[in-house]
Amino acid sequence: MSDIFISYSRRDIDFVRHLFDQLQERDHESWVDWQDILPTADWLAEIYQGIEAADSFLFVISPDSVVSEFCTLEIEHAVKHNKRLIPVVWEEVEDSQVHTSMMARNWIFLRQEDDFEAGLELLIGALDTNLVYIRCKQRSEN
């Protein structure tokens, strides 16, 4: 089981790799689609399994991710499985472009103009908050 499933657009991969590394350094195991999917595997089934195995679902908000059909499928699967949703803004978008389930959450800002360390500490705090409660809730609802 991983702590976090990271949903993102491939165009944001440099930022996501940096975020992934920073989370790993702080002992938060993350699952991203560049690892653990074998070449001949049913990749969508693997992604869904990654979502189901994670405690939290982190969505990297960018102009590319909010219009991605696959990111939308991932969000909907996370909602279906009662995952804690964590929206992280990498690049500005119009609010109307963001999935409604993400609009209902407070966003964490990790844009280039933001203080990355301060935003990362907010993210870590969110990930560490009420984790036991969240795990129990997910189990009882599934």
Explain what you see.
The protein has 142 residues and is α/β, with parallel strands linked by helices. It has a single domain, classed as Rossmann fold (3-Layer(aba) Sandwich). The protein has a five-stranded parallel beta sheet with strand order 2-1-3-4-5, with helices on both faces. The mean pLDDT is 89. The chain has six helices and five strands, in the order βαβαβαβαβαα.
Descriptors:
142 residues, alpha/beta, Rossmann fold, 6 helices, 14% strand, globular
SSE class: alpha/beta
The tally of helices reads 6
Number of strands: 5
Please outline the major beta sheet.
5 strands, parallel
Detail the topology: elements first, then pairings:
Layout: E1 4-7, H1 13-25, E2 30-31, H2 43-53, E3 56-61, H3 69-80, E4 84-89, H4 100-103, E5 108-109, H5 116-128, H6 131-141
Parallel strand pairs: 1-2, 1-3, 3-4, 4-5
Summary of the model, kept short:
With 142 residues, the chain is an alpha/beta fold.
